[in-house]
Amino acid sequence: MIVADIGERSLDAYSTRKALETCCNELYLPGFIAHNTRAMWTFSISIGVSQYLITRTLTKHGHKRLSYILPLVDDSFTGFFASRNMIRLHKK
Predict the structure, then answer these.
(1) For residue 58, what are the CA distances in angstroms to 10, 67, 76?
(2) Distances from the Cα of 77 to the Cα of 15, 40, 54, angstroms
(3) How far is CA 43 from the centre of its chain?
(4) Which of 51, 65, 77, 85 could form a disulfide with 15 if both were Cys (CB 3.0 to 4.6 A apart)?
(5) Angle 64-91/2-22 helices, nearest 10 degrees?
(6) pLDDT tens per residue across span 34-46
(7) Where are the domains of the chain?
(8) What is the pTM of this model?
């Protein structure tokens, strides 16, 4: 699951960068992150690592079900935004 999260976050960072270059505005991230490639990748990687550490901690404390649900919810949102960016890029 963590590998899927890193893949989705990479796609989101890439698609956000391309969308900002061509046609769209960022709706959710602050400009200092969205308009800086290094900041965007650092943000994406740090969120992925944080999620891994949180799920590992939840598992160690006996919350296995929550440690599975948390990444699923996050991945569904990240995948939605990444795919929306890619669709907008290919429509233009």
Answers:
(1) 25, 6, 20
(2) 15, 17, 18
(3) 9
(4) 85
(5) 30
(6) 889 899 999 988 9
(7) 2-91
(8) 0.78
